[in-house]
Predict the structure.
Amino acid sequence: VDDLLDVSKLESGLLGLWRKKCQISSIVQATIPSFEKKAQVKNISFTWEVDENLPDVYCDGDKVGRVIINLVTNAMKFCGEPGVVHLWARECDDRDEVVVGVTDNGPGIDEQGLAELFQRFKQLNNSVKGSTKGFGLGLNIAKELVDLNFGEMHVDSHPGAGSTFSFSVPVSRPCNILRRYLH
């Protein structure tokens, strides 16, 4: 079965994706220093909680890191006053995956906004901290990167109650990866 995983390397290599066994804790820890600096400058309470004993996952660690950076950056951009952003990861045994999430205390997103959230070149009409304005591609690209890594993106948000953006990454078990690859 391990040889079958090499097929996904060939298939994904054309897209610049290179999946292998990784540790989510290592991927997250590589991103933390830039978040801590940004949080300090913007006076945001940034916390993170990732168990170092999470199982190995099968993904392109660089691309998963980009997704984490995108989600935390957005959370810091749209969090409340005073800002609170929490990055976390936990194992989801029943789905054979690790879920990584970012929770903020921002304004939340209504149902119409949730329906438009992952569309290219679409930005919601939320007020943005600072003068940074994007092109409406970040969440769309993040979702595509998660899909390419055999995961799923989720959003839990309600107006006035903040948001949690999370995504899954499959645990590195050959049968699990093959099932997701074929799906």
